[in-house]
Amino acid sequence: MVGLQVDQIAQELTRGQLPIPEKMTAVVLDAYTGVEALRVEQRPVPKPGKDEVLVKMAASPINPSDLAVLEGHYGFKLTPPIVPGGEGSGMVVAVGPGMIGRYFLGKRVACLNQGKGDGMWAEYVVTSAKGGVLPLNKAISLEQGAMSFVNPLTASTFLEIAQKCGHKAIVLTAAASSLGQMVNRLFRSAGLQVINIVRRDAQVEFLKEQGASVVLNSSKANFEEQLRDLCHQHDSHLAFDAVAGKMTGQLLTALPEHSKVIIYSALSREAVEASPSQIIFEDKAIDGFWLGPYISKKNLLQILRMWRRAQRLMLTELKSTIRAEIPLQEAKQAVKDYLDHMTGGKILLKPSYS
Amino acid sequence: MVGLQVDQIAQELTRGQLPIPEKMTAVVLDAYTGVEALRVEQRPVPKPGKDEVLVKMAASPINPSDLAVLEGHYGFKLTPPIVPGGEGSGMVVAVGPGMIGRYFLGKRVACLNQGKGDGMWAEYVVTSAKGGVLPLNKAISLEQGAMSFVNPLTASTFLEIAQKCGHKAIVLTAAASSLGQMVNRLFRSAGLQVINIVRRDAQVEFLKEQGASVVLNSSKANFEEQLRDLCHQHDSHLAFDAVAGKMTGQLLTALPEHSKVIIYSALSREAVEASPSQIIFEDKAIDGFWLGPYISKKNLLQILRMWRRAQRLMLTELKSTIRAEIPLQEAKQAVKDYLDHMTGGKILLKPSYS
User: Fold this and answer.
1) CA A253, B158, B204: angle at the middle one, nearest 5?
2) What is the pLDDT of residue B1?
3) B281/A75 touch (CB, cutoff 8 Å), yes or no
4) Which residue of B has its CA nearest to A271?
5) Which of these, A102, A242, A272, B75, is most buried using a 10 Å CB contact count?
6) Side by side, which strands form the sheet with B259-263?
């Protein structure tokens, strides 16, 4: 089993001798019914059209948003069968017509699934040269680079949102996740307080070992009271919530007047529940956050600036811990393992290439 | 039984001979347990302090917000016993020290309960000269004037909010209420479409007779589908919701992407329920509206301009229908009658004065 050989591909590309096979291995979802609808199949290697690139994939993580895709809870919902995988890394080995694509040929890139076609859990992926790929910083490995988009840009955006409104402290649920750890490091560097919420004592310990000063366990009896005290003590008026369901209402109640809960994931898979009195009489609001549309509102210059800043922090504040690298063929079992244990490092899927 | 005699009081005030009694009749709430905790008692007539005025009351309506107060669901919650009553009208018969109060002496005024003291269901009320009273337009009767604040300013503010963001159509729940009727007249005059939601066929007919073009009955089987179609057809991205509970989620689902539901009352008395996917992936938000704080953010000039505009429309767009005038002594039964039948005109409570 050999992974992506960047140097060899670069040489072959230079000589114009790069062989691109007819068929590839890909993970396919047959219906939006969860992990059991996943299978691995051989399918034709797609061909890039105008302003598109063909990426030979190196790695792709399993993100919570991928799980939402499998269950049909995500914002994109193309007609199945689809190839899942929200982001990844690889090398551009072919391009369609258009200037922009040509710029990327032979480059190591991070890829983002923009919801218009198949995702990254495959050996080859066609994606748009306009927003579907961005160049990887040389210092970043393909493994780290596979996780350049979703978590690093979400964490960066959370900081941008918090700073724009002058917040000094935020509340964060599902705080022991990879994203949660990044948010903690990034906000700490910027001098902002994070009030972390997790579900287990082990996660409390874990985050505290990593330097988090305030971590609450939501399964404790006095959680709501403690959260309320901390929100008022730190004058925190903003929460980023990955849980939804009852948690959103608990956050809303704990925060002082004139606060907002921004929901960015719904790990509980439950409807948001909130007290109307909190919303009417305490000037509290519920809003949503979805990375793709947020970023696509920026102009190219703003995006590139954000990208460069995030790439620069990929070895420090925005680094992901990798728990395991699993062959693409074993994606189904890998997703099951991830479902059983969602914190403690990322699982990367990697094509083998014979 | 004689009501407030404005001319007589004016003469007596001019001669400095106005007798103010020691005791008065007032409605009192003993606990936040609803209408059964109401009783009528004799209590001392309060004395105005610095920048305060004493109003001899003419009339005070029973508003939905008063019902929320009785049940302890309102934003203000002073320690009982309290005198309820959110707004009313009367004449200023005495003032405490301070220039501002003196301006109002002998004037017909509308009064607003600002949540700092007793309310309007009494023969005499002390309120702040800075925001608790505003002069009534000469053309407005004391009965209409008793309903100058809550509904007219809420309807005016809804129009202000809708126009500020360039909306051409809004959704309105509990649309057959007095406020709902005002909103319909005001928005129609301004050329904005209202998509009305009510719960009964009789209310559909009623609003249509009043000129509303779009009225939906939320108890019909195809309500959600119809609402969705209408929201998209009219490109409506804003809803004002007085119901909360499941209705908020239904509104959120029916509205197109990039929409907001503003909750201003919670007639269902149920927790807001909403799909997190709608909030995350469709850029939909839930916000609250409370008249008092909204207005208090304005400066005095803005408030007076808004007040004058609203007073000018009190005989047309912002007129309330009066169903019954009930003596203050019978407040408990009047509230019960209102609870049984909340649409179809306002019930006014009126002191009798022997």
Assistant:
1) 100
2) 56
3) yes
4) B275
5) A272
6) A214-217, A193-198, A169-172, A238-241, A259-263, A284-288, B284-288, B259-263, B238-241, B169-172, B193-198, B214-217
Give chain B positions within 8 Å (CB) of A273.
Answer: 271-273
Distance from CA of B295 to the nearest CA of A (A): 13
Pairing of strands B259-263, A259-263: unpaired
The stretches of chain B forming alpha helices (DSSP H) are: 6-15, 64-70, 99-104, 142-145, 150-164, 178-189, 201-209, 223-233, 246-254, 276-281, 291-296, 300-312, 331-340
Which of A280, A291, A296 to probe the B interface (max B CBs under 10 A)? A280
Determine the residue of chain A that is closest to B294 in CA distance: A283
* Residue B110, min C-alpha distance to chain A (Å): 23
- With an 8 Å Cβ cutoff, the interface of chain B facing chain A consists of 73-75, 244-245, 248-249, 263-266, 270-290, 293
Topology of B2-147+320-350 in CATH?
Quinone Oxidoreductase; Chain A, domain 1 (3.90.180)
> Which chain B residues are Cβ-neighbours of A279 within 8 angstroms?
263, 272, 286-288
Report CB contact under 8 Å: A273, B276. Answer: no
Q: What is the C-alpha to C-alpha distance for residues B113 and B100, in angstroms, rounded to an integer?
A: 18
Whether B2-147+320-350 and B151-290 share one fold: the answer is: no
Taking chain B (354 residues) in runs of 10, the rounded mean pLDDT of each run is: 83 87 97 96 96 97 95 92 97 93 94 93 95 93 96 97 97 96 97 97 96 97 97 98 98 98 95 96 97 89 93 95 96 95 89 86
pLDDT at B337: 94
Nearest Cα to Cα of residue A351 among A140, A121, A136, A127: A121
Q: Nearest residue of B to residue A287 by CA position? A: B285
Q: Where are the domains of chain A?
A: 2-147+320-350, 151-290
Which of the residues B154, B281, B283 would you substitute to probe the A interface, choosing the one with the greatest number of A C-beta atoms within 10 Å? B281
Distances from the Cα of B88 to the Cα of A195, A272, B37, B62, B96, angstroms: 45, 38, 21, 10, 20
Residues 6+ apart with CB under 8 A from A255: A171, A231, A236, A237, A238, A239, A261, A284
* Nearest-by-CA chain B residue for A72: B277
The pTM (predicted TM-score) of the whole model is: 0.91
CA B315 vs CA A39, B142, B306: distances in Å: 70, 12, 16
